Amino acid sequence: MELVGQQYLIGGVPATQIAREFGTPVYVYDSEKIRQQYRRLKKAFSGVNLQIKYACKALSNINVLRLLRQEGSGIDAVSIQEIQMCLHAGFAPEEILFTPNGVSFEEYREAVRLGVRINIDNISILEQFGNEYGNRVPVCIRLNPHIMAGGHSKISTGHIDSKFGISIHQLRHVLRVIQAHNMHIDGLHMHTGSDILDADVFLAAADVILEAAFEFPSLSYLDFGSGFRVPYAPGDVSTDVETLGAKIAGRFLQFCQDYGRELELWFEPGKFLVSEAGHLLVTANVIKTTVSTVFVGVNSGLNHLIRPMLYDAYHEIVNVSNPGGTTRIYTVVGYICETDTLGADRRLNEVHEGDVLAILNAGAYGMAMASNYNCRLRPAEVMVLDGKPHLIRQRETLEDLLRNQVELEQLKEKSAV
Fold it and tell me: Of 56, 140, 256, 337, which residue is the catalytic one?
């Protein structure tokens, strides 16, 4: 979003215009920003054979998937349903990597049936897979390098207490299982967590995987996950992907030379590609002044954007209806019946009831984690494509809430008495 004159624009379209046309609350995605982020990442790793696998759990709208497919992206999927969604979007099975956690073996069987690539992150499943498929189906192995990274404990996945991946200290056990079943291992994977800033920490984890790779003679790719940080607060720092790309590329090319052939380098960005492209437009329902705080109550809440309450995440908020107004201090809260703070003690241009506020950086894990808590309806989604806003998900209705509920006739009769 950019301020041009006295208007905030999303993809060149005034945010207030989008709010009038589609109503609020509404998620709005700038397609050009997604393209820019994808191309920036490709350029940062231009010296290697880079494959980007979009972590679609961040935002799985079919149109976002197709946009990234046009750019050349593959997919990192964590459920059978994500696989099905991406196949529907036009991705070829071999472009999808299935990286679940804690699922039944039946999901792996279904993933094999669908023809996607398989990533295994525990020894029990590895043994079952070897028993059933031997070397007929190549697999990737997710290793835990025991490197602590990530901006919040709930999104750090590479440390010693993490449920993700097979410990690097269990490598000998892994190799014995592979040998016993003559398994074909075509990739190694790691993911240390989100919000990584220190390139050297990332390199330390990468070195663990690169060293382990020499134990696997048939690799075709190494997958370093992702975790690139994006700026949320004004003046916030983000991952310098250009510096990281130069360091990783140099190290990876040296590894390929030592390994004896060129491998593909994979990354699985989610937040990096879509977060900054997303905006949640809401309307100020009420201005409530207490003895200590001026609250702006809006027509949305943690049911639409849970990150502030779940992760203590900061999302910048701007008053798009009054960009030139006097600034005052407000706490922006939602309409959910519990503590539901979207932003505390924020300096905003003076807010009046009916004003439209924009919550920025809401493209990743916003709509993807939205719910019907308090029987509230999930919002519409809009994509600005080629300078025009397009509805890409209809706003829910009461019928959507009732659709899958089964009403017992006995109870209907009793309630009618």
Answer: 337
